[in-house]
Amino acid sequence: MAKRSEADALMQRIAEEFEALPRQLQGVARYLEEHRSSIMVQRVGEIAEGCGVHASAVVRFAQRFGYSGFTEMQSVFRDAFTAQASPSRSYQQRIRSVIKNRASAMPAVEIASRFIDASRAGLDELAEQLDETRFQKAVDMLATAENIYVMGVRRSFAIATYIAYALQHTQKRVHLVSGLGGMFREQLRSMGKGDALIAISFPPFGKETLYAMRVAQQHKASVLAITESDLGPLARHSDVLLKVKEGSAFAFRGLTSTMCLCQALFVALAYRLELTVEETLPRGEYDD
Question: What PROSITE patterns does the annotation carry (predicted)?
């Protein structure tokens, strides 16, 4: 357990110092965060290749955080995570291997099966890694917000549209920041203290979403970020961050896990608000 605590403390330090790291070391940090469940079995050359840097950069990264070299840093993760190596990651690797090594054309139904399996793996990972404390803080934030703004562009737009639609079924005032007509600034102008912004974005991060988060901070609104990592600009501009990593197949990432997380967030919020109504209204007024 001590090793795991040290690994968690290291990841926290990396998140705190991420923005100050040189660009190459930021790449190593992202790779480490995304592959922390299997980092203990990878060679320094493999990690360097995955980051697109020279092996010496990986060594410098370890030294930056107080280790003599990569091997010492790697040992922090080995004992804590070897027994818990993520099955979803290894399964995704097997999917990619099958595709790469397949000689004949793949039937359409098999392509569908690959996507379904990848989505299932992503949901398993979401279930295992959902942070209860963060999720509760997210529900509390939205429950007390006067207005809820929702922001997501490109692949995240479908998720943002859904959660805005779902939240319309509560008594909250909900605003989907669509940017229709190029009016992002105008749609965000009325956001202020007591409001909340739900910002959904994944690498490469949408500049419009990052802009919305900065506006929220300037206007003293709370920010809930939904993304895949504690590293990067969304963490810096958010009050609460929910992490979700999608399963992928054929180099396409799904939306299943993110949609599930947002549905769960909506249901948890609706339940919380309904309990509040039930507690404040006389029984006779509430029942049909």
Answer: HTH_RPIR, SIS
Whole-angstrom CA distances from 269 to 140, 141, 225 are 8, 10, 16
In a domain, 214, yes or no: yes
- First-to-last alpha carbon distance for the chain, in angstroms, is 53
Per residue of the chain (288 residues), what is the pLDDT tens digit? 333 457 777 888 888 888 888 888 888 888 887 776 667 767 888 888 888 888 888 899 988 888 888 888 888 776 555 434 444 445 555 556 655 656 666 788 877 887 788 778 888 888 888 889 999 999 999 999 999 999 998 889 999 999 999 999 888 999 999 888 888 888 888 999 999 999 998 877 788 888 899 999 999 999 999 988 887 778 878 899 998 887 666 666 778 888 999 999 999 999 888 866 444 445 454 444
Tokens (6 digits) for 186? 């105008």
Three-state DSSP at 194 gives coil
In 3D space, the residue among 120, 122, 136 whose CA is nearest the CA of residue 268 turns out to be 136
> What number of residues does the chain have?
288
Domain CATH number, residue 50: 1.10.10.10
Q: Are strands 248-249 and 252-253 parallel, antiparallel or unpaired?
A: antiparallel
| Residue-number span of the structural domain to which 73 is assigned | 2-84
- Whether 202 and 63 share a structural domain: no
